[in-house]
Design goal:
Elements (H helix, E strand, L loop, with lengths): L1 H31 L2 E9 L2 E9 L4 H15 L7 H6 L8 H16 L9 H6 L13 H8 L8 E3 L2 E3 L9 H18 L5 E5 L2 E5 L8 E6 L12 E7 L2 E7 L4 E4 L2 E4 L2 E2 L4 E2 L4 E8 L2 H11 L4 H10 L3 E7 L7 E5 L8
Antiparallel strand pairs: 1-2, 2-5, 3-4, 5-6, 6-9, 7-8, 9-14, 10-11, 12-13, 14-15, 15-16
Helix pairs in contact: 2-7, 4-8, 7-8
């Protein structure tokens, strides 16, 4: 009888041990396994949508990253570094500012000045910036600010910015792309190899989507709208491990005595750019580069834009107004751009 009891105790202990091991394994699977996570919100006057495959929620880290970019580069935040520099206050440039400054300098040179982050006075003058008088500028108004639009007048001395009085920096045409890259970098540091980071239409991509495929990105048709963003599919492209940005001239415009003028300002003339390019979608090694290149494409003639894109190791699709009487649009695609689906 005693022997039987002892055998039963041994069996029960084994059962308890097995249950404990299974329980521990179940806990590890439920608490430590990676899963697809989504985080959405608003920042810098636009929206963001981030999808990532991670063991843990990184939403707080995303917010921290976005805020750090804002505090350095947003002209809409009066306490940001770039705002203080524009006011002539003494301030040392941080690493974020220096990175964007270097990227802007590269595309400014590559585009022959079609991309210029000192264009803010002209953008404001035409009512598309962070200052808007609502008054149509005269020729004398335009001439009065031309001397303030020239990135070549700004220099760096170590960590210090040398800026003539009145010349302002506005990195809005490159900051969203850089913000995507910064969030993507944070995700990689935390073990995420599969993600899509979208801020205001600019996108950083890596790895695979939830179906184990390259990411499928919809390119909007150039549907004219000044009231709301209209997402009407023109095509879908498949890609990954890159940055993507789109600039368009069909969503933000104002009526003037000259007729309808669009928000893209040519820094070389300080007037709205004259172009039959409706939108430019650019793919590059990072989103900051794609963002700046896409902006330059909206100012340059199509052949010059494609040459600049290919020289900088990127690819692009330009959506052009159709010259035929049928209206509509046509596409011009550089080498290496993904097939449209």
């Amino acid at each position: 009888m005693l022997l039987l009891v002892m055998k039963l105790l041994v069996v029960m202990n084994k059962i308890r041990s097995t249950i404990a091991i299974v329980g521990a394994l179940l806990c590890l699977c439920s608490c430590g396994g990676k899963e697809w996570r989504k985080y959405e919100g608003a920042t810098w006057g636009t929206t963001f949508h981030i999808t990532y495959f991670s063991e843990y929620s990184l939403d707080d880290s995303i917010n921290t990253t976005l805020r750090s970019v804002e505090l350095s580069l947003s002209p809409f935040d009066k306490e940001s570094l770039v705002s203080r520099l524009n006011r002539g206050e003494e301030a040392v440039c941080d690493s974020l500012f220096l990175t964007v400054y270097a990227g802007a300098r590269e595309i400014w040179a590559a585009s022959g000045g079609a991309f210029d982050p000192t264009v803010a006075p002209a953008v404001n003058l035409w009512g598309f910036g962070y200052k808007n008088s609502g008054i149509e500028p005269s020729q004398s108004d335009i001439e009065s600010i031309k001397g303030l639009v020239d990135f070549g007048k700004i220099e760096l001395n170590g960590m210090n910015l040398i800026r003539p009085a009145g010349v302002e920096l506005d990195f809005s045409a490159i900051t969203k792309g850089y913000g995507c890259d910064m969030v993507a970098e944070m995700l990689r540091r935390n073990g995420c190899g599969d993600y899509m980071v979208e801020i205001g239409g600019e996108i950083a991509l890596a790895g695979k989507n939830s179906r184990g495929e390259s990411w499928h990105i919809m390119v909007d048709a150039p549907v004219e709208s000044n009231e709301a963003v209209v997402h009407d599919r023109m095509a879908v492209i498949e890609l990954t491990d890159c940055g993507l940005a789109t600039s368009g001239n069909y969503r933000n415009y104002r009526e003037t005595s000259l007729g309808k003028v669009w928000h893209t300002i040519d820094p070389r003339t300080c007037r709205p750019a004259i172009s039959n390019t409706l939108s430019a979608t650019v793919i590059a090694e990072n989103t900051m580069l794609a963002d700046a290149l896409a902006t330059a494409c909206m100012v340059l003639p199509a052949d010059s834009a494609i040459a600049m894109i290919e020289k900088n190791g990127a690819s692009a699709m330009l959506v052009m107004q159709n010259d035929s009487t049928e209206g509509g649009w046509k596409t011009v695609v550089s080498e290496g751009f993904p097939a449209l689906k």
